[in-house]
Amino acid sequence: MAVLIQVRDAHKRFGDQVLLDGAELSLVDDVKVGFIGRNGAGKSTLMRVLLGEDEVEKGEVTHHPTLRIGYLRQHDPFLPGESALDFLIRDSGQPDWRCGEVAGQFELKGAYLDGPVKELSGGWQTRVKLAALLLQDPNLLMLDEPTNFLDLRTQILLEHFLKGFNKAALIVSHDRAFLGATCSQTLELSRGKLTMFPGKIDSFLDYREERREHDRRVNATVIAKQKQLKRFIEKNRANASTASQARSKAKQLERLQTTEIAVDEPTVFIQAPKVEPRSGTVVRCEDLSIGYPDHLVADGIQLELEHGERVAIVGDNGQGKTTLLRTLVHSLDPLKGTLKWGFGVEIGTYAQHVYTSLDERLTVLEHLEYVSDSNTTRQDVLAMAGALLFRDEHIQKKIKVLSGGERARLCMAGLLLGTANVLVLDEPGNHLDVETVEALAEALKLYRGTVVFTSHDRHFMGQIATSVIEVRDGKVKNYFGDYSAYLESVEQEVESGERERSGGKGNTGHPKSQNRTSGNDYRQARRDTRKVEKEIKNLEKKIAKLDDEKRQINSDLMSETDPEKAMKLHESIQELSQQLEECEERWLELNEEFQA
Fold first, then answer.
1. CB–CB of 272/348 below 8 Å?
2. Do 19 and 97 reside in the same domain of the chain?
3. Is residue 475 domain-shared with residue 561, that is, in the same domain?
4. Is the pTM for the entire model greater than 0.90?
5. Residue 339's domain spans which residues?
6. Digit-coded pLDDT (tens) for 11-25
7. Per-residue pLDDT reduced to its tens digit, 381-440
């Protein structure tokens, strides 16, 4: 495996903040890596260093001579009036037939391909940029938050594209489901250090927490031993007959060291507003039409939501999810029909039209104190500010100097410090890192009010949603199934479209010859079926055995205090995880074959 990019002993600062502190990294030519880290840790800076747009202060960054980077940029590369096809031809230098062929992989055809590209939604423009990347024939893709503002269908298309891309990729994202589906390894930037983990993000997060828990246990043991030795030394060093023992114990004490537990700033903990649980109908919509004076988005809406529900609003971009949310919070007037909230409802809103209209004269702290519940202490306000990354001197910043992402986080912090018993959230995970999104999900699961929300983060949606409302083709209705069922139905639609595009519409042989199955063919089919069935059963036994072994070694690791033995146990867990993953993939393949 060729090393495409090598980073050695890299150092980089931004003001007083250390972004890279002796960082080491190797990106090889056939591995897809998910890149995570807290907001502000330096991920974007490292990406610029790898692209050659920024330099390290010390250390070296080496590119392989054959390296061809495809970088998904956030800025708009399109010319006024240019169509998607024109852009692809201009950007790649490839003929129109080739550009059209690659564009088809992302469902870019008809008006989406030939109309003005600047008039397309952000999700469709991202598809055009991805097609342009593929036309450049890169051997390393670098994607910075590629799923931001992409609807579910486009995310799945991007996933399928990445799974079929047999070269290297480095992907920055806070979307655990997306990283888990596309990346086989995980890279974390924390306190200036890069850690490459040879496994998927969920395994990495589990391992990291296990290591931290193990280090806490070892530290507790070491501290107890240190206290015991200190007591012995103080008691015996003045006594001539035991002074030599005291000196020996002092040397032993010097060798005892605690392990620094590698956590970023204080662990994120978020608490949702404390409200009394209620029952009954929270909001009712009857024959509701939503949209704008010159544009009807959806009509005939009949909805009734109950107190305590966590309702996910789903649908492709442009179908009207945000329009529905804005109508629910009275930011838009209904075009027709009635919308009525229940008695005693207090609505808290998180949406772009809210966090772009904050009072710019206030500081972060002043705003949070102003919007928080009267019973909230100063310490609670500071804790919430810290959880949303406003710490130290940042809490005294004026709102007018905050970036869009900082304003969004400030709005979220203020909302969670309030007393709202209904939360209406439009993309609450945007601008938040993996740990903060996870903490927000945990808070919302414990929240005793009602949540109506939309998000592009599938892991977040799956954790939170207790019911699903779909906005599609001018209609808004309850989806009779949970979020996982909705996700599966969209997956099937996308896969069906991909099969049609690849020409897999079925065999076009002679029908009569297809329908006549010979006795030999039948017996062979039965033998093949029995063989598959047997292998499935054997795999299930093996998976159960490997699971038991992994569980036992995990248990041993939690109580092991010897670093060398702990490392060997960790290596054993990695090997077992790899075997489990291979067995489970094979089991899925066989099950599909068996059902077919």
1. no
2. yes
3. no
4. no
5. 281-492
6. 988 877 788 889 899
7. 888 888 777 877 888 889 888 877 788 888 888 888 888 999 999 888 877 777 788 888
Residue with tokens 């038991």: 548
DSSP character for 116?
A: B
Which CATH number covers residue 372? 3.40.50.300
Per the listing, tokens 């959230």 go with 425
DSSP string, 261-290: P---SSPP-----------SEEEEEEEEEE
What distance in Å separates the CA atoms of residue 479 and residue 16, rounded to the nearest whole number? 51
Average pLDDT taken over every residue of the chain: 83
- Rounded to the nearest angstrom, the gap between the alpha carbon of residue 283 and the centroid of all alpha carbons in its chain is 31
Beta-carbon contacts of 517 under 8 Å, excluding residues fewer than 6 positions away, are 525
DSSP secondary structure letter of residue 259: P
Number of structural domains the chain divides into: 4
pLDDT computed for residue 551 by the predictor: 80
CB atoms within 10 A of CB 189: 23
Which H helix or E strand runs over 395?
none
Amino acid at 37: G
What is the rounded CA–CA span in Å between residue 308 and residue 448?
Answer: 6
Q: Would 507 be classed as within a structural domain?
A: no
Q: Kindly report the number of other CB atoms within 10 A of residue 131's CB atom.
A: 26
Same domain (yes/no): 224, 178? no
455 and 319 together in one domain: yes
Say if residues 345 and 282 touch (Cβ distance below 8 Å). Answer: yes
The answer to whether 310 and 453 are in contact (CB under 8 A) is yes
